[in-house]
Design goal:
alpha+beta; two-stranded antiparallel sheet; about 60% helix; rod-shaped
Amino acid sequence: MKDNREIISHLAYWMFIGAILGLTIFMSGKSIFSREVVVSLGYYSIINISVFYINYTLLIPQLLKKYWMYILALVLLIAGMTAAKTIIAVLYRDVILEHHDSKTGALQETDLSVYMISTVFVSGFFIISSCLIKFMLDWFSNIRVQRSLENERKDMELQFLKSQLNPHFLFNSLNNIYSLAYQKSEKTADAVLKLSEIMRYMIYESNDIWVELSKEISYLESYVDLHRLRFKDGAAIEMSINGEIKDQKIIPLVLISFVENAFKHGVANDPADPIRINIIANQKILHFSITNRKRIGNKDEVGGVGLNNVERRLQLLYPDRYKLNIVNSATHYTSELMLDI
């Protein structure tokens, strides 16, 4: 990509220079095959191109950081090219230095010192041009590298966050199944089957950055069903899903931490005050909310990993595109998330 951008930039620059020279020759009325034009374009083009690329490929990469050496090298370069042009001007005095006055027609000759000063300015123009193009391309290249490094860092961080989340979820789910097995519940086999379905999604279907919203919600429903098996009369959960679920995308495992937190720290067996989960989706906004009554005197000192991780993932993948509101009252805990999808 860098090579293509560099080639295109150089072609555009030299086409611009060529267009100016062509317009100048056209305005002068001289033939492009005249001796004056051939000498000027031939010898001088070689010198000017040499000035450009000696500075571009040698001096800037090698000496720019050594400021005074770079300045000295530029002075020597300009002096050498000015001497070369002056020698050519003396050899082709009649072509380069002598010209006829446009009014009187008298033959006039450009003073050699004036000519040398003009060649210094021309060399300076090509040096400045090469610097501008070099700095511009390097700037674009640095921006691209920084973006690539930032994306790599973000991907690594996301993978790390997911690696933290999955064991955390598995740890809690196994605790639930252990509780059923300890009670010798007939629901244990169903719970193991439900967990295998959930793990299949987590391992095989949630590896991409984005997944279908419908699959994420199905995964959420399976998780809720797994918890319902824990209770003899079923868990007290009200789950409402409305709107346009199909053909929508979301980052995987972003909602589960809120639900997991509600089951872990909330009361899930009170029909009078159930855990309430509401999901509303349209083409632009996903609104998710969950409310649970807080369990008294059962604060898990190990908890909190899931919610911290999901908020960090939201910051990385939904910058300025999400709103998270958490209300922690004396009796209830409510999480409300709005995503631009």
